[in-house]
Amino acid sequence: MPPRRSAGTGAEAELPEYAGQYRLESCLGSGGMGVVHLARSTSGLRLAVKVVHAEFAKDPEFRGRFRQEIAAARRVSGAFTAPVVDADPEADRPWMATLFIPGLTLAEHVKRNGSLSSAQLRQVMAGLAEALRDIHRAGVVHRDLKPSNVLLAEDGPKVIDFGISRPSDSELRTETGKLIGTPPFMAPEQFRRPREVGPAADIFALGSVLVHAATGRGPFDSDSPYIVAYQVVHDEPDLTGVPDDLAPLIVRCLAKEPDERPTPDELMGELRLVSSLYDTQAFIPAQRTPEPEAEKGSGTEAGTEAELEAEAGAEGVSGLVPGPGHESLTGDGATHVRGPGGGDVVAGSSEPSGLASSVGSRGLSDSSSGPSSRTRRRRRRVLFFGGAGVVAVLAVGGALVFGVPEVGGDSGGRSDPGTGRRAVADTFRPWVTKVGTAQAGMSKCAYGGGALRCAAPGVLAASIDPLDGKVRWTRKAEGAGDGTTVAPVLSGGLVHVVTPDRAQLVALDPDTGRTRWTLDLSAYNGSVQHAGDTVLLTSPDGMVTGVDGKTGDRLWRERVAGAAQPPFAYFGGELAYATTLGADNVSTQVIAVDLRTGDIRWRHRLDGVLSPVGVEEGTLWLTEENSYQETVSVVGYTSGTGDVRRIPLALRLPSTTAALHDGTVSLLATGGALVAVDVEAGKQRWRLETSVSRGSEPTADGRTLYVTAPDGRLLAVDARTGRLLGQTRPRLSNGGTAGVVAEVPAPLVVGDRVYGSAPDGSVFAVDAGKPADW
User: Fold this and answer.
1) Has residue 83 been placed in a domain?
2) Beta-bridge partner residues of 605
3) At residue 661, does pLDDT exceed 80?
């Protein structure tokens, strides 16, 4: 169901065209403090954008609270929340954009379909306990956990709306005499000592939320918010209708004194003792009854939220509430759920489950950049064709500036013949250096010709010694652009970059950084894709031009796909693969193009919305998405025989990045699930919940898988078992409270080293053989 264009009286007047750079497509809902809109980023990522009401934008106190909401939401962005993508609390109409995750809120589900079963309650309780653990670890107290702030996504519940949350080190305090929250879900101390509210208040709210989920009402129920407040402080909770196996644990959550309530870790420990926690039942309750006619198209909890706030007389900020849950069946008619220990269980079911999805972006890079060049962030090609293709947006300048690295860490890293790795040099010390300013944002790098080449905001390109991190040369960026940064590409022995206005492709000398040649891109809308030593320029009419990466001379010009600016994928060798979505939107045409001549070697139409991720032993492997941009299977096509293989995933994965390495396709989902699919055995090998939301493409070196998190952490995972081996510390800008970026570059593995970058502008190198010491 499409989002509504309006949400109550005056909603259209509350619908500005843009929030920052994001065009607001439609109104999802309206709350007491703001309006939530559906929007898309430049790359096609679907966002939920909260724009505050004009009247509150003039209130300095509210702006302070909104700044705090943004800071709190950024701190806790992860697998259990809707990650913050961008925000501007200083705008005329302050706004915040988070990832859009379709699904019902817990309040919506209970209102439409009734209470949850005992097994479903245990799963929701475990998911919320995990969420609160991560929120509290980040130093944040939510203070307004309630059913309308719990989003039921397929991979687990998400906690939304940090409008009245408070970081433990915040200087903003609740005013004397003013209560903030929703009375039926507030803890006693929020009424008695509102300035001393701590993490235990969220545990009390969790108990109230679970009672609501089990019975359709709260443990303290009255039409009057004043009576509810009295009951919360003085009366015992009413647990009539709560399953017997959960009632004792919920009673502990609802203890009057904060120190008598369990911690999230204690809750999870208690739940693990209940063997039936792993019932083979879908995590998301099936949408059993149709939406009431009066509610169709609402897409939000706005009505219920308004009723709660009206009854409670509470002050609060409405959350980033997503649209209604979509319904779908897996292809085999079964419901796929997570089993004990994170394993996957298939339970027979004919009922659909709610889906979560989001939109990513997809790109192509030069093979010389190492294993990460085989990874692609994907999004639906139907969105891609409306844009200008994959581009490198950097600036061109004439000045050469030399930087000084910050070197440190223990010595380590040596060649190990038994691992198949090759050391770049005999000695190596982990190092950290800055590219550009101290807080330049995340650098994007490629390896080739014995050097790292990186780009960052304000830096066209920089060459870094991979052994010690010393910056050999830097080209400053000049001119205006949209701020997008892509790793420089080594093609034809030269370092290729694109001007910020996308008007020129510039080839730089790899040793000095000086310009060797430039190429006019005005006829191609800035669409530049690299495939080894060939540059592919695609024009809006579908004409593709192959250019020599060394000289800039045209090699060939052919109409390849019959579609405007088709995306190409390259995995080494003589072929690049163009993909175009069929007119039916459910099939994909794959075309293999000879990079030397532009001739089409073969073309084949495959069922499904597909994206190439790699080639091994003559088979092209692709990932398949459903209509909600969730990856549902891995598909292999062998052109020599025409054979097609499909390997279904145990659970759908929203907005994945994927890579093929050593017979395994690794997929990282937006919510943090990391999955390995053995394409030789034709089955999923393992699944790991990383809690890394919107991480980088996976990179591997044969025995270890590497992923970069938006906060700058580098994670190492055993490629065979899926066990986490180690991780580096976060490297956030602005003192660690901000600077998480929306687009995360993949790490690079070269010999016994792994190179990563972080939001504080740093580029760093660690010993691949010692992840436990990172």
Assistant:
1) yes
2) 589
3) yes
* pTM assigned to the model: 0.53
Does any domain span residue 362?
no
Q: Tell me if 725 sits within 8 A of 705, measured CB to CB.
A: no
Is residue 655 within 8 A of residue 670, CB to CB? The reply is yes
* pLDDT confidence bin for 166, thresholds 50/70/90: low
Q: Among residues 391, 554, 562, which one has the least CA distance to residue 486?
A: 391
Query: Are 114 and 36 in a shared domain?
Result: yes
What domain count does the chain have?
A: 2
Q: For residue 90, give every residue at least 6 positions away whose Cβ sits within 8 Å of its Cβ, in sequence order, or none.
A: 63
- Residues 6 or more apart whose Cβ sits within 8 Å of residue 461: 394, 453, 454, 455, 474, 475, 488, 495, 497, 508, 513
The answer to whether position 325 is within a domain reads no
Which letter does DSSP use for residue 180 in this model? B
Residue bearing the bigger pLDDT, 173 or 612 = 612
The CATH number that applies at residue 683 is: 2.130.10.10
User: What is d(CA 442, CA 451) in angstroms, rounded to the nearest whole number?
Assistant: 19
- Provide the pLDDT confidence category of residue 187 given band limits of 50, 70 and 90: very high
Contacts 24+ apart (CB under 8 A), 51-56: 51/14, 51/16, 51/19, 51/24, 51/93, 51/94, 51/95, 52/93, 52/94, 52/95, 53/14, 54/14, 54/93
At which residue do the structure tokens 């396709």 appear? Answer: 665
Distances from the Cα of 698 to the Cαs of 374, 449, 665, 770, in angstroms?
Answer: 9, 23, 10, 18
Angle of helix 106-113 relative to helix 200-215, nearest 10 degrees, comes to 20
**DSSP SS3 for 658:** strand
Are the CB atoms for 267 and 254 separated by under 8 Å?
no
Contacts of residue 747, defined as CB under 8 A and 6 or more positions apart, other chains included, come to 372, 696, 699, 706, 707, 708, 714, 754, 755, 756
Tell me: do 385 and 251 sit in the same domain. Answer: no
